Structures
1.
Amino acid sequence: MYKGRKIITGLILFVGLAAIPFFYNSGKTSVKPEPNIDTPAIQQLAEKQCVEPREFMKANHMQLLNDWRDSAVRDGSRIYVNSQGKQFTISLQNTCMHCHSNKAEFCDKCHTYANVKPYCWNCHIAPKENKT
Amino acid sequence: MNAILSLIAVIALILIALLGVKTANLHSLFGIAVPYAAMAIFLIGVISRVLKWGRSPVPFCIPTTCGQQKSLPWIKQSKLDNPSTTSGVIGRMLLEVLLFRSLFSNTAFELRNGPKVAYGSTRWLWLGGLAFHWSFLVVLIRHLRLFTEPVPACLSSLEVLDGFLQIGAPGLLLSGVVLLLAVTYLFLRRVLIPEVRYISLAADYFPLFLILSIALSGIIMRYFTKVDIVGVKALTLGLVSFNAVIPEGISVVFYIHLFLVSALLAYIPFSKIMHLGGVLLSPTRNMPNNSRMERHINPWNYPVHVHTYEEYENDFREKMKSAGIPVEKE
């Protein structure tokens, strides 16, 4: 082995770098988060469905919200007709957050887990549920 | 032909993952066993390759000298292009690794009307390579959000910076776009320029196709089919804390992505991608040009018996004297 000390140091650095995620999570157990849909408004619903079916919302809510933003703010159209022909008012604060009044337990749970930082609340006033 | 072979190999990899997960339901094989095996091959392979290189002797002092070497005090040394000290070597190496400085000085030869020979600087490869490597690094670091819980703030800032254009939802990340464009450029360069195509091997196309399909499958998951990211993170966190379970409902695109990444990891130690370690071990770049100050000893020199003049004179002193040849010692 020539220049053995330098090469071994480099290799230890390399392995250490690759092992960072393993060290970071050693001894930690994380639970897969489940968004909480237990709010008074949802309890009162006869048929517990969001503006679209659950699977669609789970995958595409961000796109729907983005389309809603464009439609309400840019086109001035505040009526959304869903895939079953039902009409909803396009409004984050009055439609979405009316039922999902638990932002911390509903939105933030998965967003924090997956490190997603939506910029909804740059413009909208975030609900102050935790500060009462 | 080389390109088609590589493309077929990558398509075969995709099909293996697709059939394995979709048809044979081998979720835990493709989600847990294969990634672990790939990581082990990657680590052990890279280490043994570097140790193998470390065992090869460097007989000569052969740094590339691209400028004025250290000479008399009134001649200005080109310290980065012809380093004579360790710090100079580190400086040159850092610039090489981080900014691909030697590619920047790439020149192209062309025959102009006349015919006249002309050399000009050509920086497209440098630019494409730089864009490719840096965007790949950013993409790699961004993926750490799936392997850390809680996610460090620096990763969040990086992602915010990466998606600062705020196009669409989920927000468009620039590193992904740049990576895709850069890989496409590097591939087209190989195919469209006849000289480069002539020297391109299957081993050159294969990593390009592999990385292209990794990037594409990632982009498909994020922007189009919308993978269940919470489920994915549950799996990846399980992988790094050694108690992996397969969550329900992760789409097959994820398993294809994971399998291709595993293939890439396992392929690295046996391929040209080892340049990530090789660049640091290149004698032409990691040696200082100090051969006029320090003697470079060839490590495989064996002791050579030399017959010095002193010994010669001892052997023949009397004969030399009688022949009238002057001797140093009487």
Note: The first helix of chain A runs from residue 4 to 24.
2.
Amino acid sequence: MTSRDRAWLLARRGSVVTAVALLGLVAVYVRALFFTPIERFQGPAQKIFYIHAPSAWVALLSFAVTGLLSVLYLWLKDRRLDLGAAASAEIGVAFSVVMLTTGPLWGKPIWGTWWTWDARLTSTLFIFLLFVGYLVLRGALSDPEVRARYSAVLGILAIPLVIFIHVTVYLFRTLHPDPVVLKPEAPSLPGEMLVTLLFSLAVFTLLYAGFLTQRYALAVLRELEDQEAADAVS
Amino acid sequence: MGEGARAVWAIAAKDLAIEWRTKTAFVSALAFAVLVLAVLYFARDPTAVASLDVAPGALWVTFSFAAMLGLNRAFLLEQENRALDGVLLSGVPRPAVFLGKMLANLVFVGAVELVSVPLFILFYDVPLWHRVPELLGVTAMATLSFVAVGTLLSAMAVRTRFAELMLPLLLLPFLVPPVVGAVQVTARILAQRPLSEVAGWLKLLAAFDIVFLFLAIFLFEATLEE
Amino acid sequence: MSAAGADFAPVGDRRPLIAAEGVWRFFGGRAVLRDVTLVAGAGEVVLLLGPNGAGKTTLLRVLAGLLRPSRGKVERRGRVGMVAHHSMLYDALTAEENLRFFARLRGVEPERAGELLARVGLEPRARQRVASFSRGMVQRLAIGCALLGDPEILLLDEPLSGLDEVSVGTLLELLRESRGRGRAVLVASHQFAELVEVVTSVAYLGGGRLLAWEPRGERGGAAIWDRYREVLSGG
């Protein structure tokens, strides 16, 4: 089997996983809207939570995966690790956008404000910005080896940075009392809601796996094509 | 270590000699600092916000932006005729190369800061003269952190398209902890409060310095062609 | 001596100062060097010949340790002096300052800078900035810089570019001297007619491969040129 065939097979497997996850997503919507009780204090708006929290989880997961693959790349210098890190970062951007748009939609009716500079919100905003910087940096480098090394450096630096930003905002908030009465924390959920949340988390994780596999396979295919083009020239 | 230290010093001295000769970067960073200080003074509602309230933020926005102007210069110099290859060929340990570049950047940014502080005290009329040592202390801590990360990132940024745009985009997120911390400490100093009130922030600054200085030294090697 | 599996014994039968063994180098998945094995011992001057894109510059950079081989290994026994495409000098510094800076990095007495400047005929220009230098003067200074600390290994990439007749003479003299003092020299150049008398062996590169590598013997410039075309056409 050629490497091209292997990449195609991987892409096909990825699309199967994605298809299953998308069906699961439909089920999440149905269950969240019709089969999960409406939260007493927050009303129907709380149902955004079943999309918001899992997106945040996937954004965080992809961030961690990018960081981990970056460390491994600098250690092992295997190009596949770099392609995986980049694929994860792209998915991370998409889910960060979902997280950052559903968050305010939920926050406005509940806390009375679109945005608050709480530690969690701020660090997730910076995760998004770091993902963007990471992808812009990749776009500005043409040599694949240099691109891999440089983006790995950024991917590694970003992990402690986000922790530091979290602590910074935490310290900042403890000095200035929080103007918002309700903290944007997940309330302890009653059974049925918890089941919906856990189900949604599982579906989103599966979606991440499907996207990652496909995106990675695509990156491999594109590389093979570039290589063939380069070989044709020489 | 003797050999490494000599290389660090030689590289920093060479960078500073070149900067001293042209002075373009220093003069423009300084002019830029004065401009930002002046603009930020007026960027408020004078009936609602006292200049003293915006002073710490203004100072640190000025410092970090002025620093950013100078940081790319360090590696553009090496890029020109691939002089960095010559440095690497001479068998200098790679961390020494990084430390040399970083030391030159520290002196550069430090010099800009040193000239800006008196101007800041004059412009914002802050009662600060007798607490200058503490201010210098916190300035040193915060400056070390963003110069360490900035030197590393500029080593990469100069190799990209749109290098001038890339450095701020990459570096700004890394300015959040040191700048927020430094602003908090500066505000306490301006309010004539003891530093013990900001022990948490000082610890944060110190931790950031240590973590990112080590990471930068360690990761620098990956920014070199190999 | 066939330490690195070379299929002949090069002139100057000693331990190699520099050796590339089965070196591959990829750029973005494209092989620029393919399984190159080449050694140079004391007193040897290896001429690298090959068309543009044959991998000469990459090979020299790999040998210098500026690039890591993707596969295979490189061994050096001694310090490296190099003349590359780029001058590796600082335009804003004077000739003397450049030499003194690199001397300090190499742990060489900075006073050696003056001698080397005289050697490459730049003494009168010592206090002028490199930015004001002509191409040939920059090249001379780069050669002087490569000789700092009298390195055991010299890697020269098109060292003749921009040099006038007098400077070419100086370079030849320096190469002859290096050979006599047991240095290992690898030089890539298209203007090999001028160099040929100091060369001990010729390596022909094409498409990243070492196509042939043989002692120069009594071949002169014209004979090497014929052999070069023969090798390239697959002979």
Note: Chain C touches chain A at residues 27-30, 53, 207 (CB under 8 Å).
